[in-house]
Amino acid sequence: MTERRYKLRFGDKNLEDSASYILVSEYNIVPIILQARVDGGGGHLLLSLKGEEKNIRAAVKHLNSIGIETEPTENYVKREEEKCIACGSCLSV
User: Fold this and answer.
1) Phi, psi angles (nearest 5°) of residue 40
2) CA 28 to chain CA centroid, nearest Å
3) What is the per-residue pLDDT for 90?
4) Which entry of 44, 49, 53, 86 is 20 to 30 Å from 1 by CA?
């Protein structure tokens, strides 16, 4: 099982889409919500995705195709594995 972390950005038109439900039901991925925020122009969701690598890639591709932007957190957060306790604090900054 692989774990990948992503930041998802929703616009007003996708705010009602249930990304977590899609990930579980269609791609057999366990999404762990690290942070969620909704504002007037949409919202952001920080997720840890656990599942098969090919399923994660397919799910990210699907989310992008329905207008949900995805960005791997390793693009802007460097994690020290030996110190990490998966609290999500590094992502909230």
Assistant:
1) -60, -25
2) 14
3) 66
4) 44
pLDDT in tens, the chain (93 residues): 899 989 998 887 776 667 888 889 999 999 998 888 888 778 888 889 999 999 999 999 999 998 889 999 876 666 677 887 777 666 555
Four-way CATH pick for 2-87: 3.40.50.1820, 3.30.70.260, 3.50.50.60, 3.40.50.2300: 3.30.70.260
CA 48/CA 9 separation, integer angstroms: 14
Q: To the nearest 10°, the Cα dihedral for 15, 17, 18, 19? A: -90
